[in-house]
Model the fold of this input.
Amino acid sequence: MNTTFKELKELIRNLYPNEETIPLHRPIINNSYTYLKECIDTGFVSSVGKAIVDFEQKVAAYTGATFAIATMNGTSAIHASLYCIGVTSDHMVLAPNLTFVATLNAISFTGAEPILVDCDVDDFGLSPNILHDFLSIHTHLDDKGNCIFSKTGKTIKACMATHIFGNSNKIEEIKNVCDAFNITLIEDAAESLGTFSKSGKHTGTTGKLGTFSFNGNKIITTGGGGMIVTDDPALAKRLKNITTTAKTPHEYEFYHTELAFNYRMPNLNAALGLSQMELFPKFLEDKREIYETYRSFFQPIGEFKYTQPSEGTKSNHWLNSILTDSPDTTQSILEWMIREKIYCRPIWELMSNLPMYNHCYKTDISNSQRIRQLCVSLPSSAREEKIF
Done:
């Protein structure tokens, strides 16, 4: 096994020969100065400005969504989405047990209670079959068509479906289940700009709403930032209003129509986003090459399973990962690589193991438990020398 570790270390060092310490995923922003200067020169660096509108239009056009609403981060995008479809403390929301904590935190901000659903081992995404079986056994539709969770009597209002590591989940099947039980589907597409599902649709555009993150470690970054996409004009209008403190447009008066949020992405961040969209095609190209290099290395190694996009989908290959043969091997790889200044990482702690969420109702979670023990994510940054 140590021989494999050494070979993997050499492979990663060859992928990133100019870096003494190799991070998991770092941004490339060397072309941003012109965009940022133009923004600064206008004096509009906060929540109003042309760059925000331009960035929204570019993301909408790329994903095929009719509308895009920029927010300060991915968490605020999820929270605003749930709020605008009417999720409150009277409701429950289905969510993956295997996801980043922001997904569950945003649900909790509304007062709703999460229900944790297990994932599929092939794509790490929320399992449509497990979801269907759970809803079939534990819920019923009332005379208004609401999906009622029998144990609490509360309505299951929404389902959050996360696309993991840049690969598409089985979003079409998940939507079919949600439609059958009158549950609104929201896609947490934080990591998957540039990813397309089996139907050919961009992630985030199959559900009623989709949310993205542009944190510093994502495939493109705005430093901090998020985006909501939708095809619903009324919902888009409300989201724009609710994320900008519900202020009535006026030349000088400040009148706000309802309780709302100051979630608008700053113009300065959007300018950085525009510079990233310029490089985005090259990022995708290089990350495909990195993926193929890892895939070729792991294919003949029987004890490791290299995670790959589902057939018929198109991935952005944001974060390359493997499943090892045992928890001990997982720990050994992590410790070995970190000693070598190569920053691999385990997958997130499961939501069911966190003190805020270990009381939540849940399906059987054996798949996510297995992945938590065996998953190692590998350095996956795009390479500057390949971009410029």
Summary: The mean pLDDT is 96.
